[in-house]
Amino acid sequence: MEPTENIADKHTRAELDLPELYQCVHCGLCLNACPTYRALRIESESPRGRIHLVRAAAEGRIELNQGFADHLNLCLMCRACETACPSGVKYGRIAEAARAAIGPPGSKLARGVASLAFTRLLPFPSRLRLAARLLRFYQRSGAERVAGKILPRRLREMSAMLPAVPDRFFAPEAEVFPPLGARRARVGMLGGCVMSVLFAEIDEATLRVLRKNGCEVVLPRNQGCCGALNVHNGETIAAKEMARRNIDAFLAFELDAIIVNAAGCGAAMKEYGHLLRDDAAYAEKAERFAARVKDAGEFLFELGIVAPSAGVHIAVTYQDPCHLAHGQKVRSQPRALLQAIPGIELIEMNTPDRCCGSAGIYNITHSEMSQELLEEKMRSIAATGAAAVVAPNPGCMLQLRYGARRYGPAVEVFHLMDLLDRAYGAS
Amino acid sequence: MRPSALVDELRAIVGEQYLLINKEDVIVYEQDGSILQAMPEIVAVPANTKEVSAIVRAAKKAGVPIVPRGSGTGLAGGAVPAEGGVVLSLARLDRILEIDLENRLAVVEPGVINLEITKAISKDGFFYAPDPSSQAACSIGGNIANNSGGPHTLAYGVTVNHVLGVEVVLADGEVVWLGGRVADTPGYDLTGVFVGSEGTMGIVTKAIVRLMRARESVRTLLAVFDRAEAATRTVVDITAAGIIPAALEMMDRTTIQAVEKGAPCGYPTDAAAVLLAEFEGVREHGERAMALVQSICRQNGAREVKLAKDDAERQLLWKGRKGAFGALGLIAPNYYVQDGVVPRGKLPEIMTRIAEIAERYGLIIANVFHAGDGNLHPNILFDMRKPGELDKVIDAGAEILKACVAVGGSITGEHGIGLEKKAYIGLLFNEQDLEAMARVRRAFDPAARLNPAKLFPTPAGCGEVRFSPGKIPAGLWI
User: Fold this and answer.
1) Which end of chain B has fewer CB atoms < 10 Å from its terminal CB, N or C?
2) Which of B25, B71, B326 sits opposite A31 (nearest CB)?
C-alpha cells in the first residue's frame, strides 16, 4: 500500500515512529485488561488496536483524522495494558506521543478551556488558588443552587461533580521541617496543585506522617504542578517547562527521596527523564530527579514505619490508583501499611486495579464512559461491605466520592496518609 | 469494491456504532496474532445470534465472503480476511448464559474469554480444562475453531474433548444445534466434525462446555539437565512408566537465558534444559508420582530436581514458562514460532534435527514446548530488517515441519493451519484426502464463502496478503 502524503507531514510521522511500537507482538493479551475494550468490544478501542493505528499512521497508511483522534482520546491512560503486556511495551509513551501529534481532546469549547487551564492555570500556583477561591464563592454564595435549577442537564452534571472547595489551602509555614525524633532520611515533598488546593488536610497529614517517621521534610518554595495532565492531553511544551521548574526547585536540596502523595503526579515525575530526554541542559538532571521520586506509601514501606499507637477501627477496601499500580508497579506496599494499622480490616474488592473512570479530566471530556466505569466500580465496592475506600490519589478520591453520592454505597473515601495520620494519634 | 447496498443492510442489522467501514476503524482488523495482514472492507460486530444470522444472509445475497473473528489471538492467520469481505467479530457475544454444576456444564457465548469460565466457577471448586497460554485473552469461539490445547492438554485433552454441543449459524444463515447437553447424541458426531474447522463450516453462536472438578492437590517440580537429550529422554521414560502428569513442559538453554534476563524466576542459566512437571489428583497420587518422576530424572542424570514448596513457588516456576515468549523479544527483535508435533519417542531425534537445521541456516532457534505430548514450539529468532532473513526463516521453518512429518508427526499441534500453514498441509494429506475434506466442508458451506482461502492449499485469492513489515516480532503462544 502506497503511503498517503496528505496526512500528518513527514515530521509528525517520524515523531510517531517510536521504538516501543515494534515491541508489540500483536498477541492481544492487553484486550481484556482495557476498560474501554471491555465496554465496547471494538478493536480500535483496545491498546493493541491503538498501537496498530499509531503504527499505521507512522507508516503513512492512515490519516491523523478525527476518527484516529477519537480512538486515541477515548483511552483513559490507565496503563492496565502495561501490566498485562508480556513484552513490556510502554503503551503510555506511545499514546502520549500520539496525543501530542493530534492535540488536546474534546469539543472546540472544551479544548479551548482545557488548553487555557493547562497553559495558563496549572503552571501558576497563585492563579490556581484564585480559581479555587472563585469556585468556593460559587459553591457557597448560593449561585450553585441557582445554577442547579437553570443550567442545561450536561452543565448541571458537571457542576455536581465539582468537589467542595475547603476553607483553607495547603500553605506550609516553612520550607524545611525537622523530623520528630532521630533523623532517618531527608526528603523533599510535592504539595501538588490539586492536592494542595482541594485536599490541604492530606498534604498536612503526609507531612506529619513523614516527620513522625524520622524524615526531615523539605517543601521547596519554587515547586509547582507536575505537568501530568498536560502530558496526558498532548500539551508537552508546557509540561516540559513545569518539569524543569520542579527539577530546579528540588535539586537545589540534597535529598534522599522526593515524596509524592498523588499517584498521577508520582508516575509523571518518574518519567521526567523520558520527557526531557532531548533537552541537553536538563536530560541528566531529569534522570537524577526521576530516580529519587517515590510514592509516599512506597517510600514509607521501604523505610519501615514506626508502629502506630492508636487504632482505627474500620473495614476498608483498597482501590489501586492506575498510576500507582500500573504506572509505578506499587501494589503491595500501601496494603501492607494499611494492615500495619491496628483495627483496620482490609477486604479486597473484585479487580481493585481496574480504573474508576476518573483519569485526570476524562470524567469531564468523556463523561458517559467515565460514569459507566464508576458505576461498575461502586458495585464492586458495595460487594465488599466495607465502610470506606482507600485510594491514594486525588483524582480517584474525587471520583469515588461522587460515586458514593450518586450511586452508593455511602462509603467514606480516604487517602492512605489520612489513616496513617490518625493511627499516629491525629484527631 | 464497497457495495453500498450491503453496507446499508448491515448497518440496519447491527446499528451505526457497530458497522465499521472507515479505514481507521477497519485497519485494526487486518491482522490477528500472526504476522499476516489483509485489509477487510467491512467489519460487523453483532450482539446476538439473530444479528449474526442476518449478517450471513445479507453477505450471501451480496456474494461477499465472511471471516469470523474472536479475540484475534490466533497464530496462523485464521482471522485474517485473505479475500477481503466482511470480518464478523464475535466479541460482543460475551455472556456466560448458564452454569449448571449438577450436570457439570456451562452454556456460553463465543466471545467469552477462556479464563472467565474458570474464574466464574473456581469458588465452587470447578474449572474449565483447556488452557491455551493466551487464555487471559482468547475466546471460546476461537478455541473451538482451532481445537485449542494448552500445557494441561496432556492430562485433560483438547477443546473437542470439552465441548458437548454448539449452536452454529450455517452459510445460508440457518441456525442449528450440533450435539447437546448430554454426552452421547445419536448419529454422526457433528460436534466433533465442527470443532477445529477453523471457521470454514459455520459460525459458533453458543457452546455447551464441560466443567471439571478441581483436583485435591497440585504438585510441581523443576528438573535441571546438563544435556538436552537427557531431558527429552526423561520425557519419554516418564510416559513409558505409565505416569501422566497434568503438564510436562521443556525449555532449552536459549529460552532459559531469555527468561532469566527478563523476569528471573530461578532457572539455572548454565543448564542445557529444564523440565517443568505438574501432577494433579488426590494427594497420595501426587506424592507417589512425584517420587517416581524424581527417580526417573535422576536416572537420566538430572543435576537437580526442585519441588515447589508452596503455591507461591509453584506460581514462580510457571511464571517463567508462561512469560517465555515475551522474554524472547529480549534476544532478537523477531521470532517465528512453529507448532510441529512428533510421537514422544522421537523427541530426542527431532531435537537433534532442529539443532542441525538451525546451524545450517545460521539461525538461533529457542525451544520451549509441551514436551509431554510431543508438541514442539521451535522459535526461530531473527531480525526482519536484515534483507533476505525472512526468506531464510520461512525455509528453515518448512524444513522443521517436514522433519516432523518424516518421523510420523504433524505440522500443527494447536495453532491451526489457517493461512500460514496451508501450503504445508500437502505434507500430510494427498489430493484424495484433501478432496474428501473439501466435500465435508461443502456439505456445510457449498460456496466456500465462510473464511475462504484457509486450511486448503488454494491460492490466496484476490485480496492482498502481506507480511507485517518493519520490525514486528512474530508468533506468540508457545
Assistant:
1) N
2) B71
